[in-house]
């Protein structure tokens, strides 16, 4: 019976998605429409699209499962997601990005940086970083979604992978950012409904907010010995300061993702899609509540699954899921909640995956077609419009599917591990390469072309080197360190056959996120090089920052 | 105990 309802729900869902994609296609007349929605997107659509792009299935399933292991300390990430990822992002970054994007007639994040620093090299290099590394991030989302679909509908993994990709490709290629954002808004609405019901049902089944937290606190003595050894002190406490679990939680999960969000090209471009600062202000409350109901609910429910599994089997969540973090939330949904909710939750996950993927594919396409091919190489401008970008989207999708399929096919578990690091790798790389020059572009008249270029290159290089050779999770997955030096990380030593992590005071280097190394290096290089190199002319800076905003009525269309 | 949490600052998101 459920399978019939599931089929009906999915058919209706796909029908509405197709209609919204068609609406986007009909409303797309030129490059400005295709890339930034004609700068006239409604604030509700913009905020929900931003949130849905930000939150993928890994935020709900992966991080929700991680909360089942780490506990409610992960709520620091929710706070950072709301305060930095929405409030600071929209109010400070969004307002300036929108105005400067309009002044410089920029249509993409790399184009904004390129025109601000008068450099086709910066535009091309930023586009190349996005094109080369974002497919890995997209693969991580794509593989998770395809596996989930295959499991739900009894399909082959390959069939699910290709079907899912083709459906998204259709509305991204045809509808451009309008198709992406209209569908995102619907998907975000489904997501918020699913997560709200999940929160209410979980708390009410455990006797309310305080009672549920007290039950979870009472389980502190049942933390598995291995986790206790790593610094775990219960699911309503932070891990012991300086312990391996503390470093993983604070360095990688909270700070790495919490700060990395500011320089995500697929999110930054959203600021340029609205008409004025008023629309951005109107988007702030929508985005804030959306993120609270996404990551906040995932982390609280993920932690509270321990109470359910302990009361219904005497095991904590990670033991009930037999060590597989990603199974904690799906198992809880299946065992603790009524069958009709499984259907709503399936649509929630489908929406989370599709909304993130469509934006990733769109940005990969604009980076390759518009930024790299048309602008940086100065080719193909005669074809005009969006043909190069549409071809770029198709190339990007093929690249992501190829990675998602072949990495697992050729490298088995190692391939899966590499793709699983895709999100963290892309977030860290973007923050280190783009954040210093992005902040400089928006707030400083003193950052020079040379400072921006060297900051970007050293940020990207130091971040990648740290991932390849030091950061234990990444270097283990990427294998190069083991191939060259025979150890999985240069911060790990073998002493009497046992692994020992190198420490300096409380710092365990193998757990320090690349962002903590690459970002300070990039900031330092950007500032120091800018001090000794030629500044931009007054005319150029006035063009970027303006003599002061003046009222006007029209936006330029390409 | 704050909200049943002996992390409470993070919850007080």
Order of helices and strands of chain B: H
Number of helices of chain A: 24
Question: What characteristic shape of chain A results from the CA principal axes?
Answer: globular
Instruction: Report the end-to-end length of chain A measured between terminal Cα atoms.
Output: 52 Å
Oligomeric description of these chains = heterodimer
Helix proportion of chain B:
25-40%
Number of helices of chain B: 1
**Mean of residue pLDDT values of chain B:** 90
Major β-sheet of chain A, in short?
2 strands, antiparallel
CATH architecture level-2 label of the largest domain in chain A: Up-down Bundle
* N- to C-terminal distance of chain B: 18 Å
The structural class of chain A is mainly alpha
The average pLDDT value of chain A, as a whole number, equals: 87
What is this structure's SSE topology?
The complex is a heterodimer of chains A (558) and B (13).
Chain A: H1 2-26, H2 31-36, H3 43-54, H4 57-70, H5 75-103, H6 109-116, H7 120-153, H8 157-205, H9 209-217, H10 225-229, H11 244-260, H12 265-268, H13 277-311, H14 317-320, H15 328-336, H16 339-376, H17 387-411, H18 413-420, H19 422-443, H20 449-469, H21 472-478, H22 480-485, E1 492-495, E2 498-501, E3 503-504, E4 507-508, H23 514-531, H24 538-545
Antiparallel strand pairs in A: 1-2, 3-4
Helix pairs in contact in A: 1-8, 1-16, 3-8, 3-13, 3-16, 4-13, 5-11, 5-13, 6-7, 7-8, 7-16, 7-17, 7-19, 8-13, 8-16, 8-17, 9-13, 11-19, 13-15, 16-17, 17-18, 19-20, 19-23, 20-21, 20-23
Chain B: H1 8-11
Describe this structure in words.
By secondary structure, chain A is an all-alpha fold. In chain A, 74% of the residues lie in helices and 2% in strands. Chain A contains 24 helices and 4 strands. In chain A, the strands form 2 sheets. In chain A, strands 1-2 form a two-stranded antiparallel ribbon. Chain A has a two-stranded antiparallel ribbon with strand order 3-4. In chain A, helix 13 packs across helix 15. Chain A is globular. Chain A starts with a helix and ends in a 13-residue tail after the last helix. Helix content of chain B is 31%, strand content 0%. Chain B is built from 1 helix and no strands. The mean pLDDT of chain B is 90. Classes of the chains: A mainly alpha (558), B mainly alpha (13). At the A-B interface, helix 5 and helix 9 of A face loops of B.
